[in-house]
Amino acid sequence: MTETPRRFDPTNPDDAPTSPYAEAADATTGPASAEQGLGTDVAATTAGRADTTSPEEPTAQAPAPAPAPDTRQVTRAGMVWAAVACALVVLILLIAFILQNQEYVQVKFFGLEGSVPLGIALFIAAVGGGVLVAIAGAARIIQLRLAAHRVRRQASPGTRTR
Predict the structure, then answer these.
(1) Beta partners for 106?
(2) Number of domains observed in the structure of the chain
(3) Is the pLDDT of residue 8 over 70?
(4) Which of 14, 50, 92, 157 has the maximum number of C-beta atoms within 10 A of its C-beta?
(5) C-beta separation of 91 from 98 below 8 A
(6) Which long-range contacts (CB under 8 A, 24 or more apart) does 61-64 make?
(7) Cα–Cα nearest to 48, from 18, 17, 21, 12
(8) Would you say residue 51 lies in a domain?
């Protein structure tokens, strides 16, 4: 059997959060009570709960929020390491592919013909396609750099840039 979860009630002492993370989340997402107003934050939630405790119980201060976890910085060395690791995985898969496809096939290209292992033939075709994509990409990069150079030269006609 499943039980339908209910919403957090900041005026009910039984709904007190058990960790500072839960308290911060409930303070920003829980329903606003009349005592708290519209600006709900951790201090207001704690103050709202202090009113519901009995006079015999001492009021405890809310624990300080935990510091935010450190963010990781992406470095060039890390990116190079990740690229090399990915390239090694691809190369291992490529070697396995070539070794599993050793049957010779007849290949014809512009009047030339010969027998080549299937894995090698497909590898040569893939490299040829990659070279064509690299040539098209290089042409586009050169085109964009020339356009940017013209814009810089028109922006400052008196200075000479190299």
Answers:
(1) 115
(2) 1
(3) no
(4) 50
(5) no
(6) 62/20, 62/23, 63/20, 64/20
(7) 12
(8) no
